[in-house]
Amino acid sequence: MYIAQAKRKENIAEYILYLWQLEDLVRALQFSPEAIWTQLVAPQVPDDPTRQNDLLMWYVDFGNLMREEGKTRSGHLNHTIHLINDLQDLHAELLKAPAGARYRELFARLEPELPRLRGIMGRNDMPDMEIAFRTLYAAMLYHMKGDDSKSSAISDVTELVSPAIGELARIYRLVERGELDIWEEKKN
After folding, report:
1. Last-in-domain residue among 40, 68, 96
2. How many CB atoms lie within 10 A of CB 48?
3. Closest CA to 29 of 68, 63, 56, 4
């Protein structure tokens, strides 16, 4: 909860990937409040019963939401998919907007790899940003598992995905805070 809140404020991309990781952790813990307590809550806030209780309830609510949405075995919460759709919309705007020059440069490096990534994922209909996030998440999982054979198939592409997603997340934060109008011409 506390980590998620901080990530949501600072970096939407890290927030999405963090929630995807939590989905997998909660599944691995079989939605068990006892296992969640032992593995996730107690290590985070060892000496604060109030925060421990708040954190446990947040994880349990998170798991309940996964159940409600039918995501107990696989898939991602609708919340994160909606955020990726928002990023996809921003991506489309930045391809035309004055504030998107740096983003367009970074995305142009990634764009030629998208068909190959769609092939790896087996999803030709997947929007650009969902492919990008799934690529980053897969790379993270392969790295954590130490599966270098699968990791190498996408690791070279993560060097293209990460900067584009990083710039998109930076712009998203500025737009969300009202600090940037992507359509406003820069003044010299």
Report:
1. 68
2. 11
3. 63
